[in-house]
Amino acid sequence: DFQTQGIAYSNDKGRTWTKYEGNPVIPNTDNIHDFRDPKVFWHEPTKQWTMILAANDKVMIYNSKNLIDWTHASDFGLGIGSQARPWECPDLFELPLEDGSSKWVMIVSIGNRLEDIQAPNGGSGTQYFVGDFDGKTFTLDPKFAEDVKEGNALWIDYGTDNYAGVTWSDVPKEDGRRLFMGWMSNWLYAQVVPTESWRSAMTIARTLHLKSTDDGLRLFSKPVKEMESLRGKSYTIPANTLTETLDLTEKLGFSPTISELQLEFTMSPDSKADFGVELSNSKGEKVRIGFDASSNQFYSDRKESGKTDFSEHFAAKKHLAPRFVSGNVVKMQVFVDVASAELFADDGATVMTDIFFPNEDFTQLKIYSSGKGVRLNEGMVWELK
Known about the structure:
The chain is mainly β. 3% of the residues lie in helices and 46% in strands.
């Protein structure tokens, strides 16, 4: 009924494993439900191992000198951020800032099966916190604490389908990146999606960056640079003042079913336009990924994307995401992979991941705009391997 923490070791590079005879190394003495998902790392300043562990509605931090004998150091999370339960898949890591200093980032996923509780667009999601860590205690940055008072949260991805992601440990120092990958689904419907020989995929691997914005410290996500190695044929979209839909289907020379788009738009100061990318097929099914200037929000709309009736939660509404940078230039980088779209907007300030299930591949691509005052400055589309 209750989880505990044990260890296993390997002496042959992971080919075989032996469970430690003294397990559990961390017993669940308080009988906490959902006592799981340990992430262990070496904390060099205090010369000890640190474990961050999910414990229902909080995280618990433990220390050890030898990976066997563990001491409970602190708790974090009660009355902070989203209190939907259970908290899952925590991670804790240090990121540099532009001024040469650094902060620590904690990410925590919400294993929520309710549509209307606190994840940005219902169900599962991954929130993050920014602060300092002394080897034992994680303390919120004072300004960031105002952003995540109980009931408020900031999310690593504002789509419905990026959950339970954690980062790689021990990336070589000469590389230096903090790399993240998430599970591309949502517990609202993960067990009923209309698939046969497979169910669920992973997101694109992403590099995480911590940046100062007008609203405070924010976590940015960018697709890893290795994604560029998948590029094949390309099409350059000429600059265009968008007064009507721009159909690119016949111009591309390839199908956008598996593709990458990079688009830069300029809005007039008073524009209230709604613009973005539309993927569609001959059955009239479509997905739209765009920006609504009137509300200053990005969105993903899969209401007419094909198979949607397997869950009342899947496509009941457009999925909305705030914009975290100001200015009249809007950047959108979109990766399409048959049954998913991942948006990296404004150089990764806003990210949205959504899955969909068309009855026929999306082979048509359009750039649309409703309203005046929007210009497409530049655009590229690549076919991806």
